[in-house]
């Protein structure tokens, strides 16, 4: 668990969490855990990216969030996971038993502060998701989504404005609550209107026209 901008206290906390963790490697499109599985572990995304899904009672699949390097999974769970976690790319995670983390946090309260900060970040991501869902048109939802993705330095080159989308278009559709067909149609529209320039199926260049747009 490494982050170059961590202060000395956080470095010590992460070192202690490292001591009680083991490494889990998963290829792309692999299920880390399923909704309803016993929530035995907390995970830290060392490298890679994942999505979290919720299967509704009527059978619909909802993408709730995307997780990135430096994020934790499984913090706010009870006896079982309330969502599934699936890797988007080859990923390396650190896995910690929840009871071991709980015992360690009693001895070192700063661990609770770390997890509280993560929960606040998760709430901020949920707010962004709600804002995107409330955009009045599908075009605004997708433009807002691309703008949000451009905040991930691992996948966005600020010098060239080239964005790598680690999720596929069905993931985006399930996240924004619109159909796959609508996603395809609007990506074509954005390209025709010079909002984006397609490099390949997962890589696009964002033009100044789209970079000047805020979410909704």
From TrEMBL:
Record's keyword terms, sorted: DNA-binding, Transcription, Transcription regulation
Pfam family, one: cNMP_binding
Domain HTH crp-type stretches: 136-210
Keyword Transcription regulation: yes
Top-level taxon of origin: Bacteria
Domain Cyclic nucleotide-binding: 11-74
Recorded coiled-coil stretches: none
CDD domains in the record: CAP_ED, HTH_CRP
SMART domains attached to this UniProt entry: cNMP (SM00100), HTH_CRP (SM00419)
Keyword Secreted set for record: no
InterPro entries: cNMP-bd_dom, cNMP-bd_dom_sf, Env_Response_Regulators, HTH_CRP, RmlC-like_jellyroll, WH-like_DNA-bd_sf, WH_DNA-bd_sf
Matching PANTHER family: CRP FAMILY TRANSCRIPTIONAL REGULATORY PROTEIN, REGULATORY PROTEIN YEIL
The protein's name in its UniProt record: Cyclic nucleotide-binding domain-containing protein
Taxonomic source organism: Acetobacter musti
């Amino acid at each position: 668990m490494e982050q170059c901008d961590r202060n000395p206290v956080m470095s010590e906390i992460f070192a202690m969490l490292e001591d009680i963790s083991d490494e889990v490697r998963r290829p792309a499109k692999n299920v880390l855990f399923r909704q309803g599985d016993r929530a035995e572990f907390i995970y830290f995304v060392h490298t890679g990216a994942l999505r979290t899904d919720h299967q509704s009672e009527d059978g619909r699949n909802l993408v709730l969030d995307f997780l990135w390097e430096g994020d934790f999974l499984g913090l706010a769970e009870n006896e079982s996971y309330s969502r599934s976690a699936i890797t988007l790319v080859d990923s390396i995670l650190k896995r910690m038993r929840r009871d071991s983390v709980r015992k360690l946090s009693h001895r070192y309260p700063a661990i609770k502060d770390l997890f509280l900060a993560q929960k606040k970040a998760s709430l901020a991501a949920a707010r962004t998701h709600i804002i995107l869902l409330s955009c009045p048109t599908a075009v605004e939802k997708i433009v807002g989504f691309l703008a949000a993705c451009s905040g991930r330095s691992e996948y966005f080159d600020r010098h060239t404005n080239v964005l790598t989308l680690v999720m596929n278009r069905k993931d985006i559709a399930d996240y924004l609550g619109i159909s796959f067909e609508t996603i395809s149609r609007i990506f074509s529209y954005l390209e025709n209107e010079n909002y984006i320039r397609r490099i390949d199926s997962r890589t696009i260049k964002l033009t100044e026209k789209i970079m000047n747009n805020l979410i909704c």
